[in-house]
């Protein structure tokens, strides 16, 4: 078919799609406009094809490197069938006396990466061509195919009689940024595994591809380490009910993999480690009042060799448990007062020639930790604080920007990329900070590459991350706080900035997408007055 | 009775939210075995078995007291039986709670028995709630209750929650769940802001077009008569009044879709612009329509109060309309449109008075009108403390009763522990006589619906609304410290979560049983 040819030949250029975009706006949301985040390039028409769930099939193209038995795609077919036909099981009454022509979604991928994990450089590009009786979905990887299935599922709509349709469409799509993450904080509040899995579902709907698991912090240590079981048995809120077992962690990773989502673990140190101290004695620095220990503890003790031996063992375990090639090492908000109070730390400072500059001690610590993870073949991500006091971090370390208003983080983007380091932007998407009204507009209008710097510098922005810190969030309110506000950031990170520059045109599309989320059982809160055809029924 | 503070922390009455008025407690505790636990009626009780309110309350509270009973059959050895014996003075089992219904109760827990005495079944229901919150489990899952004496009654007679089902439709199930949670915090009025500009979900039997044309969807986004009856009857069993609001003359855009000639046609120059403003106050047909509508509403909703709204009337459309201007002239109102508004409201209040209903109106009505009937309640919704305190003074000085909502616009969210603001409100702290203070009949938590529907209603309401609940029920002096309230509210929030209410966390921490409904 000529469409197949057109797609596989890769001759579609961006210019071809700009005119059709303007036409589509008149068609309402039953077209590609209804897809969130907006695909990079598409044409669509009013020609529509009825879909009958009893004559609807997924299949593998003959040339596809992946064939039946491909875990990622086989499960995706099953998953998306239910998402495409949400009332199928309950609609036995919809008897089809005239069985429509069958419709086939034929998926072809270039690589058989069915049993692998998505990586930072995994292609998520896909081409989708919908015509009579058939949709052809072509991608380099299974991860791209999964993104394309998501797009297809959002294009299917029901008329007032409940019949399903999809419009004739051509899509060529790929993400703007390779890293599109969501951070969940399971230390300030424990999130049941089920809540994490539900978040992974919803992430896939918005094409997020990294789950940044801020798994431990000051308040609790829910990760059950096989090497150091005391960390959770003494550091979790409860040693049995408020932990993530190895099996829980594997379940999260494997569930995420099937959605094309990487799991990036964070074990933040040397600060934010209060809970670690409960199960690992001598790890934290004893604080002093005058010449005697006060009984309280500060950051990880950077002067003891035992600290680095412990960290090496812990990160060795973490490296083998989490398959992603990145580990987040934290490194933020280290309070120096306890280190200053401790005579052993002060003696060490003197011995090392650090003078009174505790940032040098912090740098010394982080350098050691980064070396540990480098030796384990993992790339490090650290919060921006590490850059602010340290220049010797390895070239490939990613700096994670979390501080300040636009002027502040734009300056930081300039500075860090000028030093040739890759950056990840989180500052504008601290979504745990709630306010009254449509704050999603702020998340939507972020311009991650709008800072002073060369084109090369701009390319060092690998993506962005929505952070849901847990001070006031647990499984009771996580979903309505995340969705659809995080979806605003998702479009910024996936779609072309010029095509999505108007927050007002995004509004009805996001409202429509939010209703899709609700229909899929996600407790996505409303953006403003109005209604969804199918309201949330899970009360 | 003097209250005596104890050192028992959350295991005793301190764990009861809102805090009872007077109590004594001890470390003496009694084991409770679900297989030897009974509710019963006292011999002298005016209500006996067959009392709908108490029979259903017994069943409901058994599950709340023993949340894991059905899933556990480990209670092999039978302890001594424990009886909760309820006695009430009045047989009001089949009635509806009223504004002046007593909610007072005395609860005495001793070995093998708890005696719960109340004037009304509504008081008994409040006492059962208290008892249910006093029962706790030890680390092995065994249930206990401590020896306790409680004498309790509400500080204010009106403790309400407003839900807005016009800006977003709330499925009936979401309303019922809210009623459950209201009872846990001893709220007693569900203010149902049922219609407004965006949609008219109330299916009127007299004017079916109002919802068939004015609802978001004529079938899926409406409240049928049967839905409304279900809400009222469910609320009744929890001792909760249902106060309907049909706000006019403003906030009525959706009414116009199903009732032609009801809204004022706005003019651009000398021609109608095609848009509509508030209810048209100059046509006799308007009042005929309202009389029929309120006649229906009066019979559907048993409460003796109706909320008539009356807020935020924009005069620009009235001003543009030549018929309205002619009427103004005829009536001698000059250019003062507040007089026209007053004229309209007076007519509506007279309609509901004739139907034997007392009116509640938003404070706007007081601000422009002095002739409203003595028994009308003014509902204060505007401003910061200085502003609403002045309004409290002014309105009570005029001898009118007031209901305070301004500090509890809970739909306004912000980052952090805003429940502290809801807790520290002092509803009677305004300049006025003791008599004036008594005219404050209570308060109301308002959850306006611009950004709220069934997806986020529960975590936004709870436990933030519970902070207001304690302010409205408990003694102000005993609950003056927001810091002492904090751990108690955290504990109560975990109880709500355990009962399946999606109550959000107040700060870092955990509950023994986290929310599992994801």
From TrEMBL, chain A:
Transmembrane segments: none annotated. Residues 177-496 form the Glycoside hydrolase family 20 catalytic domain. It catalyses: beta-D-GalNAc-(1->4)-alpha-L-IdoA-(1->3)-beta-D-GalNAc-4-sulfate-(1->4)-alpha-L-IdoA-(1->3)-D-GalNAc-4-sulfate + H2O = alpha-L-IdoA-(1->3)-beta-D-GalNAc-4-sulfate-(1->4)-alpha-L-IdoA-(1->3)-D-GalNAc-4-sulfate + N-acetyl-D-galactosamine; Hydrolysis of terminal non-reducing N-acetyl-D-hexosamine residues in N-acetyl-beta-D-hexosaminides; N-acetyl-beta-D-galactosaminyl-(1->4)-beta-D-3-sulfogalactosyl-(1->4)-beta-D-glucosyl-(1<->1')-ceramide + H2O = a beta-D-3-sulfogalactosyl-(1->4)-beta-D-glucosyl-(1<->1')-ceramide + N-acetyl-beta-D-galactosamine; a ganglioside GM2 + H2O = a ganglioside GM3 + N-acetyl-beta-D-galactosamine. Residues 35-155 form the Beta-hexosaminidase eukaryotic type N-terminal domain. The keyword RNA-binding does not apply. The active site is at 333 (proton donor). Disulfide bonds join 70-114, 287-338, 515-532. It is found in: Lysosome. GO terms for molecular function: beta-N-acetylhexosaminidase activity. One of its GO terms (cellular component) is membrane. GO terms for biological process: carbohydrate metabolic process; ganglioside catabolic process; glycosaminoglycan metabolic process. It comes from the Eukaryota. Keywords: Disulfide bond, Glycoprotein, Glycosidase, Hydrolase, Lipid metabolism, Lysosome, Signal, Zymogen. Hydrolyzes the non-reducing end N-acetyl-D-hexosamine and/or sulfated N-acetyl-D-hexosamine of glycoconjugates, such as the oligosaccharide moieties from proteins and neutral glycolipids, or from certain mucopolysaccharides. The isozyme S is as active as the isozyme A on the anionic bis-sulfated glycans, the chondroitin-6-sulfate trisaccharide (C6S-3), and the dermatan sulfate pentasaccharide, and the sulfated glycosphingolipid SM2. The isozyme B does not hydrolyze each of these substrates, however hydrolyzes efficiently neutral oligosaccharide. There are 3 beta-hexosaminidase isozymes: isozyme A (hexosaminidase A) is a heterodimer composed of one subunit alpha and one subunit beta (chain A and B); isozyme B (hexosaminidase B) is a homodimer of two beta subunits (two chains A and B); isozyme S (hexosaminidase S) is a homodimer of two alpha subunits. The composition of the dimer (isozyme A versus isozyme S) has a significant effect on the substrate specificity of the alpha subunit active site. Belongs to the glycosyl hydrolase 20 family. This is Beta-hexosaminidase.
UniProtKB/TrEMBL annotation, chain B:
SUPFAM superfamilies: (Trans)glycosidases, beta-N-acetylhexosaminidase-like domain. Residues 156-475 form the Glycoside hydrolase family 20 catalytic domain. Residues 16-134 form the Beta-hexosaminidase eukaryotic type N-terminal domain. The keyword Signal applies. It is found in: Lysosome. Keywords: Disulfide bond, Glycoprotein, Glycosidase, Hydrolase, Lipid metabolism, Lysosome, Signal, Zymogen. One of its GO terms (biological process) is glycosaminoglycan metabolic process. It catalyses: N-acetyl-beta-D-galactosaminyl-(1->4)-beta-D-3-sulfogalactosyl-(1->4)-beta-D-glucosyl-(1<->1')-ceramide + H2O = a beta-D-3-sulfogalactosyl-(1->4)-beta-D-glucosyl-(1<->1')-ceramide + N-acetyl-beta-D-galactosamine; a ganglioside GM2 (d18:1(4E)) + H2O = a ganglioside GM3 (d18:1(4E)) + N-acetyl-beta-D-galactosamine; N-acetyl-beta-D-6-sulfogalactosaminyl-(1->4)-alpha-L-iduronyl-(1->3)-N-acetyl-D-6-sulfogalactosamine + H2O = alpha-L-iduronyl-(1->3)-N-acetyl-D-6-sulfogalactosamine + N-acetyl-D-6-sulfogalactosamine; a ganglioside GM2 + H2O = a ganglioside GM3 + N-acetyl-beta-D-galactosamine. Its main location: other. Hydrolyzes the non-reducing end N-acetyl-D-hexosamine and/or sulfated N-acetyl-D-hexosamine of glycoconjugates, such as the oligosaccharide moieties from proteins and neutral glycolipids, or from certain mucopolysaccharides. The isozyme S is as active as the isozyme A on the anionic bis-sulfated glycans, the chondroitin-6-sulfate trisaccharide (C6S-3), and the dermatan sulfate pentasaccharide, and the sulfated glycosphingolipid SM2. The isozyme B does not hydrolyze each of these substrates, however hydrolyzes efficiently neutral oligosaccharide. This is Beta-hexosaminidase.
């Amino acid at each position: 078919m000529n469409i197949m040819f057109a797609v596989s030949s890769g001759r579609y250029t961006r210019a071809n799609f700009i005119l059709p975009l303007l036409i589509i706006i008149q068609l309402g949301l039953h077209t590609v406009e209804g897809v969130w985040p907006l695909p990079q390039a598409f044409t669509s028409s009013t020609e529509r094809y009825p879909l009958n769930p009893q004559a609807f099939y997924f299949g593998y193209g003959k040339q596809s490197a992946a064939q039946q038995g491909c875990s990622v795609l086989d499960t995706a077919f099953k998953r998306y069938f239910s998402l495409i036909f949400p009332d199928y099981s309950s609609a036995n009454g919809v008897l089809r006396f005239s069985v429509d022509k069958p419709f086939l979604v034929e998926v072809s991928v270039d690589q058989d990466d069915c049993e692998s994990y998505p990586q930072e450089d995994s292609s998520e590009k896909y081409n989708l061509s919908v015509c009579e009786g058939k949709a052809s979905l072509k991608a380099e990887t299974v991860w791209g195919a999964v993104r394309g299935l998501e797009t297809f599922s959002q294009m299917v709509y029901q008329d007032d009689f409940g019949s399903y349709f999809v419009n004739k469409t051509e899509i060529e799509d790929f993400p703007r940024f390779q890293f599109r993450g969501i951070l969940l904080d399971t230390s300030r509040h424990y999130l049941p595994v089920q809540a994490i899995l539900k978040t992974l579902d919803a992430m896939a709907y918005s094409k997020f591809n990294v789950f940044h698991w801020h798994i431990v912090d000051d308040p609790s240590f829910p990760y059950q380490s096989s090497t150091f079981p005391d960390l959770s048995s003494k550091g979790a809120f409860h040693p049995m009910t408020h932990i993530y077992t190895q099996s829980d962690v594997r379940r999260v990773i494997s569930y995420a993999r099937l959605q094309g989502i990487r799991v990036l673990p964070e074990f933040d140190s040397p600060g934010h480690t209060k809970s670690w101290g409960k199960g690992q004695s001598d790890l934290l620095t004893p604080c002093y009042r005058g010449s005697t220990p006060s009984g309280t503890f500060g950051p990880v003790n950077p002067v003891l060799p035992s600290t680095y031996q412990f960290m090496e063992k812990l990160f060795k375990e973490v490296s083998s448990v989490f398959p992603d090639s990145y580990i987040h090492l934290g490194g933020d908000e280290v309070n120096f007062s306890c280190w200053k109070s401790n005579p052993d730390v002060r003696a060490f400072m003197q011995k090392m020639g650090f003078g009174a500059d505790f940032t040098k001690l912090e740098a010394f610590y982080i350098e050691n930790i980064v070396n540990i993870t480098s030796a384990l073949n993992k790339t490090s991500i650290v919060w921006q604080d590490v850059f602010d006091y340290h220049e010797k971090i390895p070239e490939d370390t990613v700096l994670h920007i979390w501080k300040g208003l636009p002027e502040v983080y734009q300056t930081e983007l300039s500075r860090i990329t000028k030093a040739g380091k890759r950056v990840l932007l989180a500052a504008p998407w601290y979504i745990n900070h709630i306010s009254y009204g449509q704050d999603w507009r702020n998340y939507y209008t972020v311009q991650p590459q709008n800072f002073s710097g060369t084109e090369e510098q701009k390319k060092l922005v690998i993506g962005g991350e929505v952070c849901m810190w847990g001070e006031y969030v647990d499984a009771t309110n996580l979903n309505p706080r995340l969705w659809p506000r995080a979806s605003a950031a998702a479009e910024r990170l996936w779609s072309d900035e010029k095509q999505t520059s108007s927050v007002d045109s995004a509004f009805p599309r996001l409202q429509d997408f939010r209703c899709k989320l609700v229909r899929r059982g996600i407790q996505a809160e409303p953006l403003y007055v109005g209604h969804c055809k199918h309201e949330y029924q899970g009360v």
